[in-house]
Write a structure and sequence with these properties.
single chain; 537 residues; alpha/beta; Four Helix Bundle (Hemerythrin (Met), subunit A); 8-stranded parallel sheet; two-stranded antiparallel sheet
């Protein structure tokens, strides 16, 4: 029986990896002990007869897919399609041809024949391009299914029943094309656990729930967060009740913003790897998502990918793991761990490296995140930048080191710019305010350097589609820095009596008393959450 240890690469959050780069990445992880890639493509693959599917998104052509599959086959890496057959299809609903089969949010309209025509076209395209007969059909997080157009047409129905009826149709189509589906398992667990996925209560998966799972599909237990082995054990025990083999999808964190999160990946996946080994889970993958626009390179988590693989093999000596990694890749393990941007902002969220994204986009006048910043971290960011620049000199990933070094240089100036601005303004210290005004120009110059380095990273690894989002965000930040500086200078020149935003007192981001410590920065790195509290649409 084949055993798979692989990754899932997110090609749906704006960045579609160049085919040659995908092949290079496949060869790299093969050396690290991996033999599978699941290619997560919501709409970024060609489906004949569906011209608006992945339109303007840099989707893979069928020729590109066949070429990547052939190469991966030649080196012993199984390339598996991972698609969506219910939810997470928000981008196709941008186009009118799919409006009629949009239930609500990012969800297909269950029961509509056009929905199943689309899914059949998807499966037909997959069959024509991939040699593996496994397909990940998704089916996860369809929380609002049946509550939009479906509700208008059919009235209220039990949502699990709706999903199950849809799943039967999807499995029927998969069988037609001799595809063996796997799916994320959360829908069955949420049914038995009042909408919650993770639990240590083994009683929530009853015989009735197991009976509701149809034959012909295997379940994927996904968990990127759990920090206690007992929960992995309990979840895998419950998964074992379902038909077929259990797959496990862990996380090599590439979705903490621009930074990687190797440290948290190793912390959580070490426990998961041990549990999977004990439970005889033969199909394991590390998901590598691109939430918020695919800001982090997949190469940035090579250290944790290797560490997790070796820990699964039973090796726990980190010094040995580092030595092996250095010998296999020619790269310095500890130097690549700097891609986590190890600047600690406080005890509460130290396991997640989100803060850099918020501090980059936090508006310097509105300052919604400013109450979270209790001291200057300028020296910390500069120290990390120095180390990154030194490491770049001997690495084949020099462009990655440059990306992170320039980001740290920008953050050294930007992270507390709003704090310093408001303090000088509120105290009436015009000399300090004049100095801060000049820091806006220096910050803009540093952001420009980072934008150039990030653009180099993107264009090295990905197709050009999607980088326009980065242009809009970083370009908007640069314009905002220029406008704020102009207003500060106008105020200092006496052309303005007040700066209205700086007159307003700031409130704790999460609300007064929300946390027990002083660190209350938001957890999810969404650009719109800090760029402005005003509407973007």
């Amino acid at each position: 029986m084949k055993k798979r240890f692989g990754v899932m690469l997110d090609m749906s959050r704006n960045a579609v990896m160049k085919p040659e780069e995908l092949k290079k990445f496949a060869a790299t992880i093969k050396k690290l002990g991996y033999n599978m890639i699941q290619l997560y493509t919501e709409d970024t693959y060609e489906v004949p007869g569906e011209p608006y599917f992945g339109y303007l998104r840099g989707k893979y052509s069928q020729a590109e897919l066949r070429d990547m599959v052939a190469y991966c086959d030649s080196i012993g890496v199984e390339l598996i399609p991972a698609v969506q057959a219910l939810a997470h299809l928000n981008q196709i609903f941008y186009w009118k041809p799919y409006a009629a089969i949009n239930d609500t949010a990012d969800i297909l309209l269950v029961g509509a024949e056009r929905t199943y025509e689309l899914i059949e076209n998807m499966f037909k395209s997959i069959k024509e391009c991939f040699t593996s007969n496994i397909v990940n059909i998704g089916m996860d997080e369809a929380h609002m299914v049946g509550l939009g157009k479906y509700l208008d047409k059919n009235g209220f129905e039990n949502r699990f029943s709706i999903i199950r009826r849809h799943l039967d149709r999807v499995l029927e189509l998969a069988k037609k094309y001799d595809l063996k589906p796997i799916m994320w398992s959360d829908m069955f667990f949420r049914l038995g656990n009042e909408g919650t996925y993770y639990t240590t209560d083994r009683s929530v998966i009853t015989d009735e729930i197991v009976a509701a799972c149809p034959d012909g599909v295997e379940q994927v237990y996904w968990d990127y967060y759990t920090q206690t082995k007992d929960r992995y054990d309990a979840m895998l025990d419950m998964h074992a009740k379902f038909p077929g083999k259990t797959w496990f999808g862990g996380g090599a964190w590439t979705w903490s913003g621009y930074a990687a999160n190797n440290a948290f990946s190793i912390k959580t996946m070490s426990l998961a790897a041990a549990s999977c080994k004990e439970h005889g889970v033969d199909n394991v993958m590390m998901t590598m998502w691109g939430d918020n626009g695919k800001l982090c390179s997949f190469y940035a988590v090579l250290p944790s990918l290797y560490a997790i693989r070796r820990i699964y093999d039973g090796v726990e000596d980190m010094d040995l793991i580092k030595k092996e990694f250095n010998e296999i890749t020619g790269e310095d393990y500890d130097a690549m761990m700097l891609f986590d941007i190890p600047v600690d902002f406080g005890p509460r969220e130290k396991d997640h490296a989100y803060h850099h994204t918020f501090l980059l986009y936090n508006d310097p006048f509105l300052g919604s995140v400013d109450p979270c910043i209790k001291k200057s971290f300028k020296a910390d960011y500069e120290a990390v930048a120095d180390k990154l620049e030194a490491a770049a000199k001997t690495s084949k990933y020099a462009y990655l080191y440059e990306n992170y070094a320039t980001l740290c240089r920008a953050l050294a100036l930007k992270h507390d710019l709003g704090v310093r601005t408001r303090a000088a303004y509120k105290s009436g210290d015009r000399e300090a305010l004049a100095a801060v005004a000049e820091d806006y120009a220096a910050t803009a110059k540093a952001v420009e350097a980072f934008e150039k380095a990030f653009r180099t990273l993107w264009m090295t690894e990905n197709k050009p589609n999607g980088i326009e989002i980065s242009d809009i965000r970083l370009g908007g930040l640069l314009l905002r820095l220029a406008n704020c500086r102009d207003r500060l200078l106008a105020y200092l020149a006496g052309d303005m009596d007040t700066i209205d935003e700086l007159e307003e007192d700031l409130l704790p981001y999460r609300g007064k008393g929300y946390v027990s410590d002083e660190f209350d920065m938001p957890r999810i790195p969404r650009w719109h959450m800090v760029a402005s509290p005003n509407r973007f649409m």
